[in-house]
Amino acid sequence: MTEINRRSFLKEGLKGSALLVGTAIAPGITLFTQKAEARANDSSASDKNRWGMVIDTNLCKEDCTACTSACRKENNVPLFGDEKIDAHWIRKATISPKNAPEKKISLPLLCNHCEHPPCQHVCPTAATFTRKDGIVLVDKHRCIGCRYCMIACPYKARSFVFKKTRDWTNPKVPIRSKGVVEKCNFCVHLIDDGQLPACVTACDREGEKAMIFGNLNDPNSDISKYIKEHAPKRIREDLGLEPKVYYRGI
Amino acid sequence: MMEKRNLFFTAIEGTSKGFWMFAGFLFLLALGGAWASFMMEHEGHYITGMTNQIPWGLPIVMAVYFIGLSAGSLVLSALSSVFGMTEFKPFSRIAALLAVVLIVGALLSIILDWGRPERLFIPFFHFQPRSMFSLNGVLYSVYMGIGIVYLWAMFAEKKKLEKLLGISAVFWAVLVHSGTGAIFGFVGARELYHSPLLPPSFIAAALSSGTALMILVLLATFRYSERYLDMKIVLKLARYLAGFIMIVTYFLFVENITRSYIPKNYELQHFLLFDGGKISLIFWLGMVGLGNIFPLLLLLSPAGKSVKWIIVACVMVVIGVLAERYIIVIPGQVLPLELFPGYNITSSFQDGLLANYCVSTAEILFSVGIGALVLLIYLFAIKFFEMLPVTKEEENRETLPEA
Amino acid sequence: MNTKSGSIAILAIVLALLATPLLYTFGSSAFSEKKAGPNLVIPAEAGSKCVEETAYMRANHMIVLKNSRDEAVREGVRKISHSLHNCSSCHTSREEFCDRCHEYVGANPECFDCHYYK
Predict the structure, then answer these.
(1) Residue B84: exposure state from Cβ atoms within 10 A (0-12, 13-18, ≥19)
(2) Closest Cβ opposite residue A174 in set C70, C79, C115
(3) Rg value, chain B, Cα
(4) I need a labelling partner for B184 at 20 to 30 A (CA). Which of B56, B375, B401, C7 fits?
(5) Between chains, do C6 and B14 touch, taking CB under 8 Å as contact?
(6) Residues of chain B contacting residue C2, judged by C-beta atoms under 8 Å apart
(7) Chain C hits for A177, Cβ within 8 Å
(8) C3 and B380 in contact by Cβ < 8 A?
């Protein structure tokens, strides 16, 4: 499949068209076929799906911020211009081995959607919960703002809303009122609509095509095949949290 | 030793100019706290020193501190009714009262520090047995209930109930403090939090700070209400205090030596003990010095027999344990999370950088305000309820503390 | 001041503080002027019907919205017909439809703090 086809396919996909169902080959794109079968608007998320992500750090470029800016735009993630209180759902980091400082690896860091999420374990109201399809979400209607989850998360994936935010970059997604905790939700509204998370779409279109998103439960999905073939690692596997975001090349 | 039969309790008059001035002063401080809390709620938490790196600041430090003081007081109060130490009877009521008002202070600190305090009742409808906060909600509320019923039993002179409640109060205070320690001890992500020693060392520090505060409150209350206090009580409490401090010191030593022994923690311990700037200063001067070594030396030396020096030691412990709570809560957040061991990391979200926590004015007003409110409730409780023993006027006044 | 009068004074202050919401309401213009109910602008298209009976929605729209909210957030059931977004497809003006009545009854829903309503 050529680039042009892929792009036009994604565009069609964004319009919610089911015309191209079943034609996908490229990474992540089979999502559409699965979604089209699995979900109608009034059915609940299904445990047949286990959404996960693979990031190929060999492809990720240090100066590219396609994923982070797409996330901010899609999810109204606020920037206050004060680095102490700015919220980050996904952030670009550069790591280099301590014994080889000139070797630089660029990668995005986001919520890892752990199988055993410590943030959910410590939450006193079950505001943080795991949906049936494995996405760890914050119910901001229920969050009391105790910030215990921020203490418990080993990935620093969570931000607190320190201040009122008052503008929508995307009116389809709510902004946050102050005093609750927010984090990456794998663009759950897009997934439910049969689309890919905004960062993956952006990485495919403007970035380096370093992100693959799909169903970990399906052995035939691209992501499962990719994991089987390349054995990507996860961050801090020693903690035993079983994250669902994989990194190749770390 | 005072005869049990001769012990009657009464309220203070609370009509003097000094009383009302002190109450007014506390009320002003509490108003300041209310204002700070309103601002935190209304403006958002950006007015505090907290950041996304340091989500827990001074209010949580104060909450943990208040809980410790409360548990310590309740255990002391139970000494007379449970272990039959009748010489401690004179202060059993105010100790139980202190325990109740301090837990109120602790709960206020926690709840008003939430981003959405108006959602107070949500945790009650969604009990989460795995969350230490949710469990502690139950532990603290039951603890407060036990404290109140225990107080009532003392007032109603129901000896059997009093003993029963005293036992359960001690048991529950241990649970409460283990639970509070577990808030931090169960966090696997942060090396400085994750320690099975935290619950027991929390209890030890609770006993030492609780005893120190009890001695101070006891002396102040009896002196300013012009009551006779048998100094033997104070000396005995001071001996207990010395014992409790030794246990705290032991736990601190074990915890830090264990961490320092392991090579992967070299950097971390070096930061905590030497390179941390104000954190290292608070560690050595505040926690180790004021909380442990200085008061222990004072109490064990001949000076430990004089009330004046006991007061000095108690003030040190009360401040030192606050420093200890600070060292438990803050450094674990200041140190960056180790996302990629063996790698250096830079990002737009301050990964790999030491965070800096500067307490803001709002937080100080908030914490001081809650402390003042606690004292204010105590003050009016001893004014309206029969909390203090009646001592005969003719008994010798010269044994009153000079300080 | 003796203890008794002191206690009465404190009691009076506490009661006054507790009564502030009532005093505020009695003092407000809405209470004294006995205004008629707000004039809501309801879509006039012939044959247009709400997703539920009008009377039911009037009384229970908050419950409907809350249920669909919880289902959407926690289960992933996106029942578009019962969403806030769908309200706005007919009741296009928030000021004239939602706010007028909310203001009149003194309700202060938090929905619009975060959710966009055109």
Answers:
(1) exposed
(2) C115
(3) 22
(4) B375
(5) yes
(6) 15
(7) 110, 113-114
(8) no
Mark yes or no for CB contact A150/B52 under 8 Å: yes
Q: What angle do CA A131, A132, A135 make, to 5 degrees?
A: 45
Count Cβ–Cβ pairs < 8 Å, chain A vs chain B: 175
- Among candidate residues B14, B32, B11, the one with its CA nearest the CA of residue B23: B14
Chain C residue with the nearest C-alpha to that of B14: C3
Of A116, A139, A122, the residue nearest A188 (C-alpha): A139
Pure H helices in B56-197: 58-82, 92-113, 122-125, 132-155, 159-185
> In angstroms, rounded to a whole number, what is the distance separating the alpha carbons of residues B159 and A225?
73
Supply B232's token pair: 């033997």
Distances (CA, A) of A123 to A139, B110, B386: 11, 15, 42
Residues from chain B that touch C1, judged by Cβ atoms under 8 A, are 15
Interface touch C2/B384, C-beta < 8 Å = no
Any CB–CB contact under 8 A between C17 and chain B? no
Phi, psi of B288 (to 5 degrees): -70, -45
Tokens for C29, please give them.
Answer: 């213009």
Count of Cβ atoms closer than 10 Å to residue A163 Cβ = 19
Grouping H, G, I as helix, E, B as strand and the rest as coil, residue B339 is coil
Handedness of CA B140, A141, A180, C24 (dihedral sign): negative
Give me B307's structure tokens.
């009330």
C109 has a chain B CB within 8 A of its CB: no
The angle that helices B231-261 and B307-329 make with each other, rounded to 10 degrees, is 30
Which tokens is B71 given? 């548990």
> CB neighbours of B111 closer than 8 A, spacing ≥ 6?
B117, B120
Of the candidates A117, A101, A156, A149, the one whose C-alpha atom is nearest the C-alpha of residue B353 is A156
- List, as ranges, residues 2-41 from A with C-beta within 8 Å of B: none
C-alpha to C-alpha distance for B93 and B154, rounded to whole angstroms? 7
Q: What is the ipTM of this complex?
A: 0.90
Q: How far apart are CA A73 and CA A63, in angstroms?
A: 19
Domain positions in chain C are: 1-34, 54-114
Q: How far is A67 from chain B (nearest CA, A)?
A: 14
Q: Which residues of C touch A193 (CB under 8 A)?
A: 78
Give, in order, the Cα–Cα distances in Å from B209 to each of B206, B290, C7.
5, 11, 33
- pLDDT tens track of chain B, all 403 residues? 344 445 677 788 777 888 999 999 999 999 999 999 999 999 999 999 999 999 999 999 999 999 999 999 999 998 888 888 888 888 889 999 999 999 999 999 999 999 999 999 999 999 999 999 999 999 999 999 999 999 999 888 888 899 999 999 999 999 999 999 999 999 988 989 998 999 999 999 999 999 999 999 999 998 888 888 888 899 999 999 999 999 999 999 999 999 999 998 999 999 999 998 899 999 999 999 999 999 999 999 998 889 999 999 999 999 999 999 999 999 999 999 999 999 999 998 999 899 999 999 999 999 999 999 999 999 999 988 888 887 654 344 444 444 3
Distance in angstroms (rounded) separating the CA atoms of residues A200 and A30: 13
